[in-house]
Amino acid sequence: MRIIRDPRCLARALAQQKKRGLRIGFVPTMGALHAGHRSLIRRARQENDCVVVSIFVNPLQFAPHEDLKKYPRSPRQDICLCRESGVNFVFVPVPPALYRPDFSTAVTVKGLSDVLCGRSRPGHFEGVATVVAKLFHIVSPDVAYFGQKDAQQALIIGRMARDLDFGVRIKVLPIVREADGLAMSSRNAYLDSPQRKQAAVLYQSLKAARSLIVKQRVYRPAVIIGRMRSVIRRSSGARIDYIAIVSADDLTPVRKIRGKCLIAVAAWFGTTRLIDNIVVTSSV
Ligand code: AMP
Question: Ligand 1, residues 143, 149, 278: which to mutate, most atoms within 8 A of Cβ?
Answer without folding.
Answer: 149
